[in-house]
Specification:
Two copies of one chain form a homodimer. By secondary structure, chain A is α/β, with parallel strands linked by helices. Chain A is built from 14 helices and 20 strands. The first copy, chain A, has a domain of 251 residues: 3-Layer(aba) Sandwich (Carbamate kinase). Helices cover 35% and strands 25% of the residues of chain A. Chain A has an eight-stranded mixed β-sheet, with helices on both faces. In chain A, strands 5-4-7-8 form a four-stranded mixed β-sheet. Chains A, B: InterPro entries: AceGlu_kinase-like_sf, ACT-like_dom_sf, ACT_Aspartokinase, ACT_dom, AKii-LysC-BS, Asp/Glu/Uridylate_kinase, Asp_kin_monofn, Asp_kinase.
Chain lengths: 429, 429
């Protein structure tokens, strides 16, 4: 049997008892005959506590030292997990990101993994040890500085290790049972998916499903590493994320044809919408607007430009962006008004985005129409529309998000026959 | 001006405010024109908290993982100190023991420093940065594992860095004003020493003065690094520990001739006494007893063997040892009784040791007599006696320790004219 990489987040490592439970879980996998490599996050609130200390010491701490500070969190949890495993009669070796060969660029706080050179990990596996690696951290290639990977970093560490070790699977343990057809807090009849494709998972993550981070799924897709998203609180199978879903999965899911087309309904309440009203419809005006936003380091999501009214030759440009960037974006645009000569700016942060995602919709022309009529029947007005090959997203009023999600979920026959009691929470780092 | 190495212990780094105070102190030294390298311990109770977590997870955690765990403590404090310095407008770079080139053997929990290769520290100094190094930790030479140095480790880190960097001085910041002629809690008129020799400091440390650890003083003596022991809560000069004390120091101290002979009076209440009664006075019997104790890894302190009584040809052997080793030693000896054929074992842990220390006593024959008569006049009975070139130690009843210390301190005119209000506490790690 091959190598299994597992990742446990902070909520699975909240205290000594939780750590012991994780250790038993790891040992079970080892007993099945697998070699096991584990990426861990910092325990529960450790990172927040460390950042609070930093804020007490300096209002603007240097990024290098913030990374040194935060990296202590995984050092603590990895040692404790290794101890708990040893207490069960198995041997474990813990390694920092640097020791495990997680080589990154030098962008403190949001470093990208450049390479993984897991020589010490491979050696420890060869000696029969279970290996525990600090997630979320690495060492910069040229300067040998301690770096952290930013949000979703521990998941990415796990997938990167799985790729470098040619692992069978990367198991991401979390506090939910897997990936659902919708947030069960909104749609109690939401169904756990047995499998989704990388592409679907990417769209789900981009559209607000917080279960896996975009970059970790991108990494897994690039190296074709199957991810098994599952609960650390149960032994149920979770959701497999992989390149293609074969017929077996479809039959196992025992779903209708529609369900094979659609993976799920995602929603996102973290965005705001800005409309630039009355932009002269000339070559280069839109470019100037988006250049200014890029310079302010703002990531835009949906962008819509209406055709210009023939009478005035003016057009409106709307886009969505993270609410946290709203103030910065409005300032950047306001300072551009005299140059571009637009009429005014509208800002709306009472919006929500509802997205329908499924690789099967490529070849099923009726999906868009069904989606829109479901939302219409629920009495919800659509503000913006944006589509990709395997996704349709609409912006609606924030208060209408739940109704739109439920209506869509039901229209595409995604409802499960039994109600599952799960919490659809966010991931840690 | 040259390099100054400073060391701050856990009590000087208890919280954010303490860390900011330490940062100001470091910056003051930098402003004077020195290059500054700082070794830090973990904050206040961090190490205890981490060890408690370890105990919750496993009753007998592997030493390797305990070192990984504990090393997180200095990683936190070093980053916070660097941040606080940056907040004062200076740049700092923090390095782990491994990054700073603190190379050790592979004995987890009590590693010895083999070499210091401070390439990154030197480079950072050259770039104008203040350098913060994690005390107490290193990396093993062959296996590249994280190690910790055991008790007194951070002091040793500081002295080792000072030696490797050819520093002017190694300043050890603590919660007392320096080295005193006796514990001021027992002798309120105890005087701070301006200077002591390495040898005197070694004897003081070995005899219960907890201000500096033996190994750190040994290291400083080997590389001839002056240590300045001083308070992090005041700007007073502390005590200089160095190879020889010149006339200037004597004049500065404005002390009597006696005070130049005697450095101080130390005491120790952490030992117990074992007497092996009725040992046959034959060649090799004592050796068998001490071989058994050595095998049980027990460090003995004073050893006394009386001449044997002519009638019986039996002798008594007494020795002192750490109380914590008492049970182990008694078991080891009991299992030896039938072979050696001694009569019985006596165990006494209600003892204390009082020691008079001073390099000058070598050439002053009257010191021993004066010491004994001072103790006698205080009505204290002497149980055991042991001497070195620059030290006389006696074992007395535990309750008589204070009286013996005061009487000795006074007999040798060590009393200061003004009473200093200080706390004579232990060192951290």
């Amino acid at each position: 049997m091959g190598i299994v990489v597992q990742k446990y987040g902070g909520s699975s490592l909240a205290d000594a008892d939780a750590i012991k439970r994780v250790a038993r879980r790891i040992v079970e996998t080892k007993k099945e005959g697998h070699d096991v490599v584990v990426a861990v996050s910092a325990m529960g609130d450790t990172t927040d506590e460390l950042l609070e200390l930093a804020a007490d010491v300096s209002p603007l701490p240097p990024a290098r030292e913030l990374d040194v500070l935060q990296s202590a969190g995984e050092r603590i949890s990895m040692a404790l997990v290794a101890m708990a495993i040893s207490d069960l009669g198995f041997t474990a070796r813990s390694f920092t990101g640097s020791q495990a060969g997680v080589i990154t660029d030098a962008q403190h706080g949001k470093a990208k993994i450049i390479d993984v050179t897991p020589g010490r990990v491979v050696q420890a596996i060869g000696e029969g040890h279970i290996v525990i690696v600090a997630g979320f951290q690495g060492v910069s290639q040229d300067t040998k500085e301690i770096t952290t990977l930013g949000r979703g970093g521990s998941d990415t560490t796990a997938v990167a290790l799985a790729a470098a070790l040619d692992a069978e699977v990367c198991e991401i343990y979390t506090d939910v049972d897997g990936v659902f057809t919708a947030d069960p807090r909104i749609v109690p009849s939401a169904r756990k998916l047995d499998a989704v494709t990388y592409e679907e998972m990417l769209e789900l993550a981009a559209c607000g499903a917080k279960i896996l981070h975009l970059r970790c799924v991108e990494y897994a897709r690039r190296y074709d590493i199957p991810i098994h998203v599952r609960s650390s609180f149960s032994h149920l199978d979770g959701t497999i994320v992989r390149g293609s879903i074969d017929d077996d999965d479809h039959q196992q899911q025992e779903t209708s044809m529609e369900a094979a087309i659609i993976a799920g309904v995602a929603h996102d309440r973290s965005e705001a919408k800005i409309t630039v009203v009355g932009v002269p419809d000339k070559v280069g005006e839109a470019a100037r607007i988006f250049a200014a936003l890029a310079e302010a380091q703002i990531n835009l999501d949906m962008i819509v430009q209406n055709v210009s009214a023939a009478a005035t030759n003016l057009t409106d440009i709307s886009f969505t962006l993270p609410r946290s960037d709203g103030q910065t974006a409005m300032s950047a645009l306001a300072s551009l008004q005299s140059q571009v000569g637009f009429d005014s700016l509208l800002y709306d942060d009472k919006i929500g985005k509802v997205s329908l995602i499924g690789a099967g919709m490529r070849s099923h022309p009726g999906v868009t129409a069904k989606f829109f009529s479901a939302i219409a029947e629920a009495g919800v007005n659509i503000g913006m529309i944006s589509t990709s090959e395997i996704r349709i997203s609409v912006v609606v009023d924030e208060v209408d998000v739940d109704a739109a999600v439920r209506a869509t979920h039901s229209a595409f026959d995604l409802d499960s026959t039994e109600v599952e009691a799960v919490v659809y929470g966010g991931t840690g780092r």
